[in-house]
Amino acid sequence: MQKGIIHFGVGDSMDTYMYIKSSTKAVASNGKPFLTLILSDKTGEIEAKLWDVSEDDERNFSGEKTVKVLGDVQNFRGRSQLKIRNIRLTTEQDGVTPADLIQTAPLSQDEMMGKITQYIFEMKNPNIQRITRHLLKKYQSDFLTFPAATKNHHEFYSGLAYHVVSMLDLAKGITALYPTLDKDLLYAGIILHDLGKVKELSGPVSTVYTTEGNLLGHITIMVNEIGKAADELNIHTEEIMILQHLVLSHHGKAEWGSAKPPLVREAEVLHYIDNLDAKINMMNRALEKAKPGEFTEKVFALENRSFYKPTFSE
Amino acid sequence: MQKGIIHFGVGDSMDTYMYIKSSTKAVASNGKPFLTLILSDKTGEIEAKLWDVSEDDERNFSGEKTVKVLGDVQNFRGRSQLKIRNIRLTTEQDGVTPADLIQTAPLSQDEMMGKITQYIFEMKNPNIQRITRHLLKKYQSDFLTFPAATKNHHEFYSGLAYHVVSMLDLAKGITALYPTLDKDLLYAGIILHDLGKVKELSGPVSTVYTTEGNLLGHITIMVNEIGKAADELNIHTEEIMILQHLVLSHHGKAEWGSAKPPLVREAEVLHYIDNLDAKINMMNRALEKAKPGEFTEKVFALENRSFYKPTFSE
Amino acid sequence: MQKGIIHFGVGDSMDTYMYIKSSTKAVASNGKPFLTLILSDKTGEIEAKLWDVSEDDERNFSGEKTVKVLGDVQNFRGRSQLKIRNIRLTTEQDGVTPADLIQTAPLSQDEMMGKITQYIFEMKNPNIQRITRHLLKKYQSDFLTFPAATKNHHEFYSGLAYHVVSMLDLAKGITALYPTLDKDLLYAGIILHDLGKVKELSGPVSTVYTTEGNLLGHITIMVNEIGKAADELNIHTEEIMILQHLVLSHHGKAEWGSAKPPLVREAEVLHYIDNLDAKINMMNRALEKAKPGEFTEKVFALENRSFYKPTFSE
Amino acid sequence: MQKGIIHFGVGDSMDTYMYIKSSTKAVASNGKPFLTLILSDKTGEIEAKLWDVSEDDERNFSGEKTVKVLGDVQNFRGRSQLKIRNIRLTTEQDGVTPADLIQTAPLSQDEMMGKITQYIFEMKNPNIQRITRHLLKKYQSDFLTFPAATKNHHEFYSGLAYHVVSMLDLAKGITALYPTLDKDLLYAGIILHDLGKVKELSGPVSTVYTTEGNLLGHITIMVNEIGKAADELNIHTEEIMILQHLVLSHHGKAEWGSAKPPLVREAEVLHYIDNLDAKINMMNRALEKAKPGEFTEKVFALENRSFYKPTFSE
Amino acid sequence: MQKGIIHFGVGDSMDTYMYIKSSTKAVASNGKPFLTLILSDKTGEIEAKLWDVSEDDERNFSGEKTVKVLGDVQNFRGRSQLKIRNIRLTTEQDGVTPADLIQTAPLSQDEMMGKITQYIFEMKNPNIQRITRHLLKKYQSDFLTFPAATKNHHEFYSGLAYHVVSMLDLAKGITALYPTLDKDLLYAGIILHDLGKVKELSGPVSTVYTTEGNLLGHITIMVNEIGKAADELNIHTEEIMILQHLVLSHHGKAEWGSAKPPLVREAEVLHYIDNLDAKINMMNRALEKAKPGEFTEKVFALENRSFYKPTFSE
Amino acid sequence: MQKGIIHFGVGDSMDTYMYIKSSTKAVASNGKPFLTLILSDKTGEIEAKLWDVSEDDERNFSGEKTVKVLGDVQNFRGRSQLKIRNIRLTTEQDGVTPADLIQTAPLSQDEMMGKITQYIFEMKNPNIQRITRHLLKKYQSDFLTFPAATKNHHEFYSGLAYHVVSMLDLAKGITALYPTLDKDLLYAGIILHDLGKVKELSGPVSTVYTTEGNLLGHITIMVNEIGKAADELNIHTEEIMILQHLVLSHHGKAEWGSAKPPLVREAEVLHYIDNLDAKINMMNRALEKAKPGEFTEKVFALENRSFYKPTFSE
Q: HD/PDEase domain: which residues (chains A, B, C, D, E, F) (predicted)?
């Protein structure tokens, strides 16, 4: 098996199969067109520049293609960048499919669905359980393949479901320590909080925002969906409003997109668990690429901090 | 007819019929209970303190009662306050009803409904027209009696409808000057933008926030309602999403409660018209009480400013 | 007549007469000098790069020249940019003058002056009327040709006067709806509020800030001018101070350059009308270039938002 | 056993033993002196006013006394307040000691010390282990009795140790889910992060800030102590600096008192665990006093929010 | 000579001549009127409450009167407050005049005028010198008696001139160390920067804001005055604009009232000297009242900080 | 002697000895490597780009080398940049050493040490004197050679000591004017406030942050050092804590890195003197390069302002 992108550093040469996640054409300062490619495999991704492209190049190396690339990793403003010496589309002979290269969650869709089903099964409040099950079922196939975001964290195939599963596991541990927390409410809030992303985002790969995503956002979309589900299931109890509030407030503050701050205990805890999982995820990925005694690249979504990996780290 | 509250100043004595908008019990620093009453008539309202109250007083002078009050207007930290010398409930002999004393919009419900109906009638886009008509009809009776807020601006009987009518008239003038604006969209946005207040607030008088109002807010409530109305009318075109966006963004910024800022031209204009009408309304009421050459009381919702009334004002 | 700049999109070729609004020399990353040109005609403007320029090029293609340009419109970081294939100065044979290409207000100077004169004529307060007439007369010729700004909004020939005329028309509609507003004061405030720009800015085209503009700013300049005008006309009544306050406060907040916030009702309304006209102007221009179903380019002065043009727009 | 303070609501009468946590003399608006007492028992605390006090009263009812109080619970600006009808010092006959009334952690000092000792025992990094053990031993007796703060959260006898134990348990669960985290570092950071409070605060009860607490603060105090401990133990490896960084950064941001933000993964997680435990603690205590369907009192340290207790809460 | 106010602490009794700086009537929570008096002598001032006042009391103890007061100093929310036992107007027999009691600058008007005249005399730039001399002469008598503010710092008789003299002395020392600074400009800026306060404020005692002060502010007023002075002296060189800029920018930032930040070196230094003198002045007065080892009262204008007086202070 | 860098302007050619302060490799948009060099001599520094570098170039023109450079000064985004035509390492024949080119303080190390020794000698408080002498002696050699920062102000050889000497001279003048200030404390605070930079920064030239500098910062480092010094000298009086507070608070605000704001008078004055010296230093250097009637380059650390040099400046 080939060495993964994450294991190449500045100065290394790569001769590797990669998947073009996105391809953007622009004009260089010498007036010639070039492509900025985001190349990925299961271990990570790297930006690459392809200079002086022909019209054929543009067609061939647009997004969502599998390619063989020869190039050198260089430093560009503190980030790794691949300088391409040679690039070609793969053929059948290469025996490589997108599925071999696309970064996905470390758990299979079945494993994740199994865990979530179990969490729903354990709920004791029938209203909360029915709403959660209904909405998950409605959007299940997209939920299992979409990323959790276009960048920053869990931005890979099945990232949305994997983020939810990690949060559920965290919630299980926390509710064990603080028994006054309402488990059903917290689990349901976790499962639903980002489900609106199946409409906010365009799809599992090469993901961008939809118009609805831009104008309404995943929070508003999901709050509406809960309301409609309640009508369809003919549930008109307070659980509906509380679940809508959990989704509405999960970004924590008005300036972060939650028109109401958390005003229910489980809403506050949901907001915390969401943040904690995302942050550990981002730090882990940055630190994987750093050696002991070094600082990581700057992580934009963590206030642009660089993290230090102690020399005594294993 | 009796002289209105607004015409009494510090040093004046009042002997007047008034309506108790709210009554709050508290304990004075000498340990004795007292009531803080908000007393109103059609021209305005004044705070009053009733000291050393008995249990009978508490019962009698709770909210939403009509009373005859004798007292003196005093200055308390820069605001007028009535020191009550005598207060009694009115009887049939007084010939006074709440309707004689409650502050209401300067237009009748019929006049306002007539104007709004005409604006809807002029719409050319059938989807926008049907949604607007459907939702207005659904909540029409509350819409015509509710205030637009619990304080700050248009916080009187029918204040919500009156605010909407003023905004529609403003919009008519503005769309005449900037003909690229989509009239239908702007009118519909104005009619719907605050309609969620019929669920956010408790009622036309002694108005407080409902639990749903606290946890979801009138914006989220109305965005949901538009979605449900679209299902009921079987309209699934882009107009729905755009109307939801207008309601969602009408507070202008995330930190003011709009998860998305205005991203459609008419949404930005709606936000402006809403602010302009509210601000002129607040300034007018503050200036009514000031004489030329004086500053008004501080207006909390206008960044706590005091406004100056020029000596050459009429 | 030739097709205007605004009607060309990415991918189009242009072969067009244009006016060089500005020309800036810089050094490319290959070490060679190049020019960044802002090219305009009556419909709009476009940035262009001229690579590897000779000393002759620098001389020829400096600002305020009329040129014939052949090139291709490309996308550069989300904005249109012209890649020049050929550029030459126009000669008499071309029959093109700067006046044919410079963007100007849609009304003639006479029309605008006629409208403003009428607004001043309608004033009933003689002090306000005399001050306004005196200052307008003093700076009339510059007022009628200057732009309202160097960028963002009304940044074209006669843009300052056109902005004032639009605001006066808006004010007329608003004062009709809110009759307590002092028309004379509001009209005078509108006419004077930006008049200091004739000293803050360098001239009607290729406009930059003067030293006085940088160190004092148009607000301070105009407040001083009102004081001097009052001395010259021997008017020493409160109207002077109030007009100075309207000018001083028209940016609304200290952090936006108004040392005092609006503390007179008409000052607050002036601030609102100023903003509303500027914003609609900016949105209209951005939306003109977008097709239904698309987002506009980002508009820097509107918090960098992109606006959506609904599919049902005409 | 007597009914605890937490179980009394507005309108109830109390006839109860309580402990005076603090007593402040002031002058009422009628010119007479009065005392503001904070009265507590194991279940909570309540503010009380004692009007028109004599010099004897002042002496008797100063802080840290045990008293028998008869009074009525009233509402004062949205908070409960006790109106005292009768108060007297306890005598031997009452058979009540401060220990019966002072609020303490739900675990005994031995239990807490046992748990912490076990966490230290599990550490594999000898440098981290020795530093932690050394400092804990140095301040052990104060650590086990001090509160974690003067107000807001864990402000009771042994609150500091209890907060640390809760955080360690949380950390155990989280490190199980995210195995790349360095357990030793995180545990040590938790044990040391607030240990400087034994010098910042004055003692286990009637706690106020010391001068050193005001001028240096517990973070700076503890960072210094780690440096000195390293000298005494002759450890000069990177672990020292990293532990100092964890303590230094645990408030998360400069404006919250951490001169450096967390730049080591475990520092970020420590900051999160600290917040999460404090917040759940504060919400739990506020919600204990509210009934289902009600909002709690405003919680100052949680951005002054009121939390809603759903009607379906047990 | 009597012991000054500043030397009395909580618990002391006073039997002293004082000057009533201001007197405000309000209503106590028992419904009875009382007066809040600010009483002063040369050493400082103290707030006092006079309860249950008659109409005679109101008349007698309004502002700007000389009184003999017997009372006790008490603590009210961390500040000293005098509880009046007896108060009477002084008569001729007392042999006390306001001049004996009003706090004034430590230098006489002649001494201050002498120093400032010397600084002007040393100027080498004739334009700067003439403008400064002209404006100082125009407002000299008010300049020598007005306070520098209504509260916070230098809020005493002749405080404005004294603040200017202190700043000039500071400037002399600083220009000696940094010889590139333009002395003339800096001295002139210091003399003129706050001179507009003679129109912003109402007078030397019981000082409040004038309408012009509220609507324009001392900065705008003085910038205008410099412009008019230039016209009168027929000076039309750059010095005028630079002096206007120094005055305009001396608050340092837009949000502190300077529409332009300092953009000339001497403007930045002026801003610094202004702040430094004001801050030392405020700290000195707060520390005078504290004993070694204590914290001062909170100083509102210094971000509400309390300052510590070290035990080793003399 | 050769003409210094500061005397070259845009359009000039340079043929000069220079010192490479730093050298950074990057990849141009045409895919070829280039170096960004910071070249300096005693008068200043200039950025230069070396295009299409070979591996030899990279080795030769890395940091801390002496070179002979031929090139042209060009304008790059408002800043001067040198376009290199020829560059070579110096040889013995050139007779140039780094000491001839490195920018240093205008005073010699001996002069500076002499002045500081005198200030310490004048101290009357033996505890303050001993601590200051001890710490200065401990780090004396680095203190005399390190810069005060990596950029912005005093970023040259011996800049740290020079900044301290300037501040001491300023303090001497200020304490003469405000005699209540504690000279000993202020002088000691000035000498110690930035001494931690000898551990925060890597060395006297090509200065970068150390890991300890990044994770703890010079403030925390120095506060620790004072604590350790006190132990070594066996001084346990309040002076230690106050000196630690002066160092801790000298950035003035939490968001600028001081966990505690100045709470001692001399701490506030220290913060002011630090700022004033740094700001005058930065303005002087920017203005040196500008001609009368021009604005300087933007100064990043002064809120990105450009300063104006009046036409009447000498």
A: 156-288
